[in-house]
Amino acid sequence: MAKYIAKRILSTIPVLLGIILLIFFMLNVIPGDPVTVMMKEHLKEDVIENLRQSMHLDDPFFVRYFHYVSGAVRGDLGMSWKLHRPVTSLIADAFPYTLRLAVCAALFSWIIGIPVGIISAIKKGTLLDHVSMGVSLFGVSMPVFWIALILQNAFMRVLPVSGVDSWKCYILPTIVLGWSTAGRIARLTRSNLLEVMRNDYIRTARSKGLSPAAVIFRHALKNALIPVITVMALQVSSLLSGAVITETVFSIPGIGSLAVTAINNRDMPLLQGTVIFTALIIIAGNLAADLLYTAIDPRIRVD
Amino acid sequence: MNSILEIRGLVTSFATDGRKDRAVAVNGVDIDIPRGAIVGLVGESGCGKSVTALSTLGLLPENGRVDAGSAMFGGQDLLKLKDHELRRIRGNRISMIFQEPMTSLNPIMTIGRQVSESIMLHGGVDKATARARAIEMLEKVGIPEAKRRYDSYPHELSGGLRQRVLIGMAMVMQPDLLIADEPTTALDVSIEAQILRLMRDLQRESGTSILLITHNLGVVAELCDSVCVMYAGEVVERADVFTLFRGCAHPYTRGLMAALPRMAMKGQRLYNIPGSVPNLWSMPAGCRFSPRCEFAKESCRQEKPALADLGDGHLCRCLFPLDDVPQHEGDNP
Predict the structure, then answer these.
(1) What is the pLDDT of residue A41?
(2) Chain A: which residues have CB within 8 Å of chain B?
(3) DSSP assignment, residue B90?
(4) Could you tell me the CATH number of the domain that includes residue A284?
(5) Which residues of B touch A211 (CB under 8 A)?
(6) Distance between CA atoms of B97 and B105, rounded to whole angstroms?
(7) Comparison of pLDDT for B242 and B261, the residue scoring more
(8) Concatenated DSSP letters of A219-258
(9) Is the confidence at residue A138, as pLDDT, over 80?
(10) Which domain holds residue A217?
(11) What is the value of ipTM here, to two decimals?
(12) For A191-205, how does the pLDDT look when each residue is reduced to its tens digit (9 = 90+)?
């Protein structure tokens, strides 16, 4: 198992190098000169030229790439051009907000999504099933910014609609983020459970004289949740890498907001930093999903 | 009559998407299983054998429904019992083995737990006792290193071993009746013989009656005391195994017998009954077998034959039962 994890971690190195290369390339080809954006075009030619040199902007592409990677290996993702602070410390400041929101949204979506999926499967075809699947589909289909604005309007007298001053500030963003995830999990749980219930081993369990509850909870549910758990782990990693829209709408200074700021300012080091951080989180989430999988399903062995 | 299970007039139908009328899969089936006997239930795929078994145990899929009939077991009609009453009988006094050992075990639960689960449920014993009894049962059904295998998962076992586990699971409560639904169909021939021997040994030891569902008359000849032949949801012939193999009366049974491969027929083409089982929605008006029957006369297509007694409890649903002795008598047991 340890060997497998080590192998997986090693295999992320080329992936990360590739991601850095890609983001470097893309930022290289987008129009707009970072120096003029930074300095608002008030500077003289020679000053601009000096700045460009001190920022290594005139170096060849691969030289800059090499410098960046060698810095990143030492934990240095460069300085933010606009905010004049190390990118790593900006990320470290922003991450707790994103983490808090992601944990709340994930818990919300599991606590709501899994039971709703189970009940819908058991009560298949009833009004309850149709209503809960409708609400789930609504959450999955509606754009996040729309739900966010509607909820802000509806609850602005009772709940804070922006900022991070108290725990109450997290309620609406949690619902906005968690709703679609909960909907996805509910629908997946329901369809998997219904599919598992058609299996031969469920008939075997029933033929033993087990009660319907024992059949569902002891035999069907664990089998049905295996794919759901994968989705859950991947969902967590995407929540952790920052909910750009939700954080922006609710003014939460997390990773998502940081990325938006970086884009608006053409702040390449900061943007590269957030992208790489996101990639790391996603890779870790994938690894966690795979490990969880092997822990639950005895048919999958890693080594 | 000293029967462990008496099924009378069983009618089971299924709802199908896009059709208003229900498909009647089992139409008035009578079956008796004498105490301690092994009864074979024979017929082609889709003739209602499994549905008959599932109906009696209340294990029909959601779209299935028992419309009429009774199944008397120990003074109770199984078809009238409430679900929780039936659950006390299932897996305890009547248990079932299914056709597919590869998929009939829960893939993420150890085989030992799947066996001991029944013991804890019906035996009311603690985990340690159940474990000990489960290991004992696994040994009995011939699982090597049963103690270690207790913690194995189904995918770590071969098909033959999995079927042994399923048999152990079914027999662990020493049921009065075991319903085995094609228990060897998915296994290869050498394993099949072992499994059949195991079932017979367990049956002799425990006195359990067995309803053996199969499409293989060879298995019937080897194991059963009496036989019920089903065709298109009806019993068409019923006799003890010697009577049937000495001279079956229904053309369908004869067709099944002729389709058995025999050593004496080496090099010849294997016989098959022409046509296939009729569609559940368009049953022939008269005898249901008449469109495929080589002996059918005009009256067969008009008149519906009843299950008539030919003497010695040999029942046959045919207007013109065969009385000739089949040519291949010499090969029979």
Answers:
(1) 60
(2) 198-201, 203-211, 214, 218-219, 222-223, 226, 296-299
(3) B
(4) 1.10.3720.10
(5) 84, 87
(6) 11
(7) B242
(8) IIHHHHHHHHHHHHHHHHHHHHT--HHHHHHTT--SHHHH
(9) yes
(10) 90-296
(11) 0.85
(12) 999 999 999 999 999
* Cβ-based neighbours of A257, under 8 Å, separated by 6 or more: A94, A242, A244, A247, A248, A251
Is the domain of A112 the same as that of A72? no
Which two three-digit tokens encode residue B6? 């008496």
Asked if residue A165 belongs to a domain, the reply is yes
Q: For residue range A183-233, what is the model confidence (pLDDT) as tens digits?
A: 999 999 999 999 999 999 999 999 999 999 999 999 999 899 988 888 888
Q: Do A98 and A40 belong together in one domain?
A: no
Classify strands B64-73 and B234-240 as parallel, antiparallel or unpaired: unpaired
H/E stretch holding A155: helix A144-155
Specify which residues B177 forms β-bridges with.
Answer: B94, B209
8 Å CB contact of B91 and A209: yes
A220/A224 Cα distance (integer angstroms): 6
Q: How many domains, in total, are found in chain A?
A: 2
Number of cross-chain residue pairs from A and B with Cβ atoms under 8 Å apart = 73
Q: At A112, list the tokens.
A: 């709501």
Query: How far apart are the C-alpha atoms of B96 and B176, rounded to whole Å?
Result: 11
A168 and A71 share one domain:
no
State how far residue A204 is from chain B, nearest Cα, in angstroms.
Answer: 6
